[in-house]
Amino acid sequence: MKLNKIFLGLIGMAALTMASCSDNDKYEWATVSGPQVYFSDALPSQYEIDPAGTTFNVPISRADASNSLTVNLTSTTANPMYSVPSSVTFDAGQTEANIPVAYDATKIEYGRYDDITITVADDSQATPWGIKEFTFKAGVTDWGPWQKWNATGTADYTYSVYWAGEDPDLKFVYRHNMIKTNLYQFKLSNWGSGVDVVWDYDDATGIVSVARQFAVNNSNYGAVTVIDYVAYQALLGNTVAGPTGYFDKDQGILACPVSYIIEDLRGFGSDWEYIYIDGYVRADYSLSMSWGGIYTDATGAAFAVGMTEAGADVAEISSVVIEADADAAAVADAIAAGDLTATVSAPGMIYVPIPEGMTGKLQIVSAVVVKGELKSYAADGFEYYGGAPSPWKSLGIGYYTDDFVVPLYTEAGKSYTYQVEIEQNTDTPGLYRMVNAYAPVAEGFGEKGGKKSIEINAEDPEGVYILLQDTGLDFGDGAIGIMSWGAYYLGTYDVATVKKNGLLGKLEKGVFSLPVIEREKSDGSKAYYQGLTTIGDGSYYGCPNGEFKVVLPTASTATRAAARSAAKATDFAIRLNGASLPAHKLQKHVRAIDVISNSIAK
Predict the structure, then answer these.
(1) Cβ-count burial 261-299 (b if 16+ within 10 Å, e if not)
(2) Mapping DSSP to helix (H, G, I), strand (E, B) and coil, where does residue 302 land?
(3) Those residues with Cβ within 8 angstroms of residue 279's Cβ, 6 or more apart along the chain or in another chain
(4) What is the Cα–Cα distance from 62 to 72, expressed in whole angstroms?
(5) Contacts by residues 50-54 (CB-CB < 8 Å, ≥ 24 positions apart)
(6) Pairing with 255, which of 126, 203, 399, 533 sits 20 to 30 Å away (CA)?
(7) What is residue 32's predicted lDDT score, i.e. its pLDDT?
(8) In whole angstroms, what separates CA 349 from the centre of its chain?
(9) Which residues are paired to 176 by β-bridges?
(10) Environment class of residue 19 by beta-carbon count within 10 Å: exposed (0-12), middle (13-18) or buried (19+)?
(11) pLDDT tops 70 at residue 493
């Protein structure tokens, strides 16, 4: 509207001016004679020259094409490999001619671009209304031409962050750098929302990375870009060592942890995504395992029993029993390196000796090792006390309101209350645990798993927290873990400091609770959380309903009755009518991995 007002004002001024002129007044318009030679303002600012060629053309135009015309030219360039002719000729009737710029291809330096200026020498042949001098760059990119990887030139892409699922048969090409010959780029066409994506690979370091590039326009957030995780952290001012992407040349798999971000650097999340290049026969070295119990032979030797499922190409598994707090990935690497003595067995039921004197919380770690290289590993925890009584004593059946997992996998996003056995530690009376805490959730979804105990630390009844623990669930997006929000800070601060900031829960009258924290969503509305739910390498806001609760068997009759009513009201449909639940998948929830603050008041 502002523009229209200005325009109307100008019209008014013009009308007043015309009214003041006599009918005899005439305006003498400027006249231009001659051929009026010029360079179009639509010409490119940079010319890519062909290493196999000798010339490229720069168009020049004229307005008067009635006669043939020779136009004298001058030129300047800092690189003597280029040669511009001193003139160009138009045939009669021709409004555009080409200036052939010659070059010596043997002197090409990849990645170098030089300025070249071409000027119409005679002003009488030019036009005041056009460009008589044209400056541009010419050279050859340091990247070679895009090439197909194989005859089909296709690949599959698996998404896990902004999009989820697999995109098969994408057109796939690659190119290499002409200067740094260890550098490669891989491009998928019509990826994601239909744009191309380019991944970089450095063969000297073995690292795959993704430079920041446009991914999609989001209706709520605007432009969304994709970038590798390490580079994203650098944008945030953080220096991280990894994880970094890699290229498995034997399997034809490119893998990279990527982040999807909006323009103000907020993150949609970070996770691994993969390119599977067509034309490869890939071995199946997958491995999964669950603990199967303790076996004691006739000599009294104890063995941990593991139930393993392995890929078709797994011939043998190497396994050890080790403390539960050991890093399973590092243990698997040590097995592959031969630094640990492992029990070798065929896939299926395995028996792994428990080292003498090793008791308490333990784990089986099994590795698939082929020609000294670790292909995959699996681990599962258990407890063993060498014949001594367990320090855990059952208190009976209580009630658990799960707001960590079920809301993320159900469209309604509601919490789920159900019965669970609760134990107390006799050595540390303030330590409690829910036995097989997520088995009912697995059963409700028609899945296996969930047979992990979740410990709750209430040594200080007003400073309750849940450290990050595996639920034993994996619905196809990665292993699922949970932790209370206050526990996130316990790696940096002591319990007293985190408690002072109001981030720890309470145990009151036989009921565990966690503080409800408010956050503002991008649309300005309010949302809530009480912890984190980790899924694979990603983290989500846990307890979006603010309804986490554990009711001990020792709680009052009224409290237990209310919990029992909640359990009936929220029970899964499969338990109500025996019908199968629809296929469950991770709903759209905001990841928290890149928006967590690690700073609280001391």
Answers:
(1) bbeeeebbbbbbbbbbbbebeeeebebebbbbeeeeeee
(2) strand
(3) 149, 150, 151, 152, 252
(4) 13
(5) 50/105, 51/105, 51/108, 51/140, 52/105, 53/105, 54/102, 54/103, 54/105
(6) 533
(7) 63
(8) 36
(9) 184
(10) exposed
(11) yes
Please state, in angstroms and rounded to a whole number, the distance separating the CA atoms of residues 457 and 461.
Answer: 9
Sign of dihedral through CA atoms 304, 305, 309, 315?
positive
Tokens found for residue 162: 């902004």
Cβ contact 431:440 at 8 Å: no
pLDDT of residue 589: 62
Q: What is the pLDDT of residues 314-326, one digit of tens each?
A: 999 999 999 999 9
What count of Cα atoms within 13 Å lies in the side-chain half-sphere of residue 82? 27
Q: What whole-number distance in Å separates Cα of residue 532 and Cα of residue 469?
A: 11
Query: In the predicted model, is pLDDT for residue 576 greater than 60?
Result: no
Tokens for 339?
Answer: 């630094």
Reference 107, options 76, 75, 138, 134; nearest CA is 138
Task: Please say whether the beta carbons of 258 and 227 come within 8 A.
Answer: yes
Q: Are 23 and 62 in contact (CB under 8 A)?
A: no
What CA dihedral angle connects 563, 568, 573 and 577, to 10 degrees? 160
Helix (H) or strand (E) holding 119: strand 113-120
In 3D space, the residue among 271, 539, 532, 573 whose CA is nearest the CA of residue 410 turns out to be 573
Q: Considering only 3-7, 84-88, 466-470, 509-513, which range has the smallest mean pLDDT? A: 3-7
Q: Residue for token digits 């992990």? A: 452
Q: Provide the CB-side half-sphere exposure for 338 (13 A, CA).
A: 3
pLDDT band (50, 70, 90) for residue 15? very low
SS3 573: helix
Give the angle 309-312-315 at the CA atoms, nearest 5°: 80
Residue from 217, 275, 213, 214 nearest 248 by CA:
275
Residues in the chain: 602
User: What is the SS3 assignment for 449-516?
Assistant: CCCCCEEEECCCCCCEECCCEEEEECCCCCCEEEEEHHHHHCCCCCHHHHHHCCCCEEEECCEEECCC
Query: CB neighbours of 277 closer than 8 A, spacing ≥ 6?
Result: 149, 150, 155, 172, 252, 253, 254
Residues 67, 68, 72, 75, Cα dihedral to 10°: 110
